Amino acid sequence: QVQLAESGGGLVQAGGSLRLSCATSGLPFSSTSMAWFRQGPGSEREFVAGISWSGRTTHYGDFAAGRFAISKDYTNHTVYLQMVSLKPEDTAVYYCAGDLGISSSTYSRASEYDWWGQGTQVTVSA
Hints:
By secondary structure, this protein is mainly beta. Helices cover 0% and strands 48% of the residues. It contains no helices and 11 strands. It has strands at 3-7, 10-13, 18-25, 33-39, 46-51, 58-60, 68-73, 78-83, 92-99, 115-116, 120-125. Strands 2, 4, 5, 6, 9, 10 and 11 form a 7-stranded mixed β-sheet that branches. Strands 1-3-8-7 form a 4-stranded antiparallel β-sheet, with no helix packed on it. Strand 4 and strand 5 form a beta hairpin. It is globular.
């Protein structure tokens, strides 16, 4: 059974940092492309960052480039999202996702990912 469990969310002041973790089990981690999405109140789920199965390629949403960094830990089967210079508009529930069939043209589409975590809340105060 595939499981993805996010952690690391919380309340932080604007300009602060957080590191989100996504612990995985039951999936072929070395072959799985992973991503982070987020969904704010009244908003659609949007792509934050993605990393290829090999870890060699990363992608970021426009708002995330330069502030967020995604990484894969192949030893612990965990994906991280390091976030710095956080803004109030970054407030959202952050979801971890994974799939075996992600390509360079599909990495930002939530519908392409089969495996999802329950999400972790990130709140950035002004």
